[in-house]
Amino acid sequence: MAKMTKAQREWRPGVPKKPRSTRVMFASTVLVLEAFLAIFVALALFGLKGEELSGALVIGAGVVVALICIFTCALLKKPLGYAIGWALQLLFIFTGFLLTSMFFIGAAFAATWWYAVTKGHTMDLETARRAREQAAWDAAHPQEGTGNPPAQP
Length: 153
Prior knowledge:
By secondary structure, the protein is an all-alpha fold. The chain is built from 6 helices and no strands. The longest helix is centred in the last third of the chain and has 40 residues.
């Protein structure tokens, strides 16, 4: 049997599930796609500039950047994760000096990263506001807030 997570071990009936951050999910999606991009860029550089650049260096750098993208996903609950994410966006744009099309692809991914971070944050704020309003309504209407019909006298 698989090992249970901390959340699974601590769960009890009636305990509400902790909401997941939309910002973290969006940003993680972009970073995983950029990990694939790093591998594909390394392969393209290896094929196009194999004589100029060391093949092992190019492939190794691509794998390292891909791993950094993946490991950054774990840091997205802290500001450091977003700082590393922005640094990765700059890295992908500056890769355009080696492969010209990366100026455009890197800019597109940077725009996607910006949208994921800003829109995800906006959605998290909206989710928190709705949760506060729901909790206030449930407190004001104890019988109706549970989803059960009111008891008959």
